[in-house]
Design goal:
Two copies of one chain form a homodimer. The first copy, chain A, is α/β, with parallel strands linked by helices. Chain A has one domain: Vaccinia Virus protein VP39 (Rossmann fold). In chain A, 41% of the residues lie in helices and 16% in strands. A seven-stranded mixed β-sheet of chain A has the order 3-2-1-4-5-7-6, with helices on both faces. The longest helix of chain A has 25 residues. Chain A starts with 27 loop residues before the first helix and ends with a strand. The N terminus of chain A is likely disordered. Chains A, B: InterPro entries: MeTrfase_7, MeTrfase_capping, SAM-dependent_MTases_sf. Chains A, B: Pfam families: Methyltransf_7. Chains A, B: Keywords: Magnesium, Metal-binding, Methyltransferase, Transferase. Chains A, B: It comes from Populus trichocarpa (Western balsam poplar).
Chain lengths: 364, 364
Amino acid sequence: MGASATTTPELYAMNGGDGRFSYAKNSFLQGHSVNASKEKIGEAIAEKLDLKILLSTSKTIRIVDVGCSVGPNTFLAIQNIIESIERKYQAQYLNINQKPEFQVFFNDLTSNDFNTLFSSLPPNRQYFAAGVPGSFHGRLFPEGSIHFFYSSIALHILSKAPEELLDKNSPSWNKGRIHYINAPDEVVNAYATQYAKGIEIFLDARAKEMVSGGMTVMSFPANPTGIPYSQTFTGAMFELLESSLLDLVKEGKISEAQVDSFNLPMYVPSLEEMMELVQKNGCFDIEKMELTSPGVHASMTNTSSMGKAIVMHVRAGMERMLIQHFGSQIIDELFNRYAKKFEEFPHHVLPSKKVQLFVVLKRK
Amino acid sequence: MGASATTTPELYAMNGGDGRFSYAKNSFLQGHSVNASKEKIGEAIAEKLDLKILLSTSKTIRIVDVGCSVGPNTFLAIQNIIESIERKYQAQYLNINQKPEFQVFFNDLTSNDFNTLFSSLPPNRQYFAAGVPGSFHGRLFPEGSIHFFYSSIALHILSKAPEELLDKNSPSWNKGRIHYINAPDEVVNAYATQYAKGIEIFLDARAKEMVSGGMTVMSFPANPTGIPYSQTFTGAMFELLESSLLDLVKEGKISEAQVDSFNLPMYVPSLEEMMELVQKNGCFDIEKMELTSPGVHASMTNTSSMGKAIVMHVRAGMERMLIQHFGSQIIDELFNRYAKKFEEFPHHVLPSKKVQLFVVLKRK
């Protein structure tokens, strides 16, 4: 297994800049998700965040967006969090002249376009901004320094695809597939195990970095119990990408071996899996864990403009890793095919709108 | 006076990336300065920093490089500061198993190339890294959150050149010059006043951001008392640039008005001026303030390779603002002329090697 057979994590970052295929211009899906979560986050802060405890040891509230990409969604989400905390402050305190200061850390992989992120920071922001490069699968902050972690549509990303998928002598060899849709149990298990390891590291790091009483709010793609992954929206999105790549194999434009050695570094867990991982970690109280609608549902995606936008969204998110593995010469054709398949796909057969997990944890 | 007549502060950042004219490849002069300051910083930490006080309220030591640019100098400087603090920790404490954690904030203007900075962070660093975009002429951090400010060759940069230099009806109109060398007193005073305002804002902001007992170490170009600015190395560097631009005016390649409306946003203070500003602020004890050698002196700069390197250094630092004002078409010719003038310049007539101010302040 050569080094070139795996995708390097740094290529998992979204497209930077502000060009046609940039994340900045193609992140409205995540924007829907931010909107859908807005009220829920406000509620969680109002009901569960105790500012008297947090402010007993610090005059500053430190907030992190884990996997922030380049905006504008992260700025909207942060604004909502700060406004919610300020409302809670007013509800808990009488003296509003001594409001806390806010410091916001925008985190994403080192390859994220922080230059674009920084240059688009809201000019009238009421917080001190900082960028933190590095994987959330590891420590990012000093011990006991963070009061609020936020993460939107990032936690389904693995630090890498499971290595055994590349081993021709293993029952987990993922021949002819780029993910675990319609794959044997061994492949699904390899993904699930890799995911669990990553989340264990994530929770362990965040537990160390948070102050007692601090809050973590996350939402990310999830698999509704009892529904096969291929019949969910996320599953269908990836299956159509796989099918587009296999078409290119048939036409000799890429090799079979190239597809065999490419595996998406993503896993969509169920509520039960996540629940078990948080409980196993033991450092957090689970204040909320529920399946929600991401704000965009299957029926909407059948409209042509929404469909096109979703294709652009997938491109903004995955282009870098696809180019690294398959080369840039096939990328336009790949996404043209993908767009066509997407248009023809009967989205209405997708049974569930609740394909996102909304999680509120409180550090014990 | 049109908006186009002034240079926007965001263009004061060094050249990004890692190309021929990048700061990353042309910052050895600053590197000499970092080396020259290394021992002095170690001494200041050993003698004056009280870790028992700092660690009584925090388990983390927070360090900032103000005006860090893109490396590698900032990484060397930070490494030296952390190692010095660790030595002091061992000298002050018996229990070395509970060493503090370090969080380092790399600060520069929003237009600084943070992507290059982040991708070149030392992989084995023993600290948590963050980037903070924004001008040091203003607040950057929450109140009472920083233990150590460091700044190398940045504090001579103004937030903007004085506006009255552009006013044709003012005695401060800076016709035919780009700086205050050989200028009437009114021009020098306009610069000095602008500088004083900026340093007042800087000291006020840092005083708020620092914890009591925290340390600020800065070194930056300074003007030795009694020596005309034009006879210092920095003065000569700028005078040769002005002379190169005036040559282009004579040849009709740029207009007189373009030179009249361009003024370098830099001021080189004397020790006495800085002393007065710190005392006026009142929040700091002055632990050390002395003129030092920047590690490169006039005789060295007469060697051809050093001379070429200095020209590249000036280009890396000033190209963006020169292009914004004069256009990119003249930039190669400008620096070719500058290089030639620099080569012919009798550096040995420069009287002083001590053209840098080394300052150690302690927050009261």
